[in-house]
Amino acid sequence: MTNKTGLEFKVGDAVVYPAHGVGKVAAIETQEVAGMSLEVYVVTFDHEKMTLRVPTRKAKTAGLRTLAAEDTVSKALTVLKGRARIKRTMWSRRAQEYEAKINSGDLISIAEVVRDLHRAETQPEQSYSERQLYESALDRMAREVAAANRIDKDAAVALLGKSLSAKKANQPVAEETEEAEAA
Fold first, then answer.
1. Considering the domain 14-66 in this protein, what is its CATH number?
2. pTM score, two decimals?
3. Is the pLDDT of residue 44 over 80?
4. How far, in Å, are 41, 74, 111 from residue 63 at the CA level?
């Protein structure tokens, strides 16, 4: 959906960039690059103290998108209530898959990572790398839920925690590996 200027986003819009999460379009500038004029969105990420410049023509292919719609947020919260699905593959492989889901920028995929790596008080402690991935996914999801619902991040974390505590069962469901399915 483009506006009158032909651009997808305008200054002040909250947007999601896959690798960095929720940011704000601070400006739309024209920059001189290699002798050519290039129009860019200037996106700021306050939580990372970072500014990103995304060419307006490449915004879609770069994955820049609007905040998740209300139905997507609801679906993501429902995913958190489901049973964890843990594949029976080596941790390094699962960690790569989780990282890819987090960096996809897709709220449902991020919710799956949060669900799969969440540990209740009664469950065994997580490894350092599991905890890092969990906290990264939780932070990314909380920021988008907070922005979409116009609440602060702490309220969003509480909302996610409520959905996680409503899980159907404590024990994760082990999924067969792709290799076992192929056999």
1. 2.40.10.170
2. 0.82
3. yes
4. 13, 22, 18
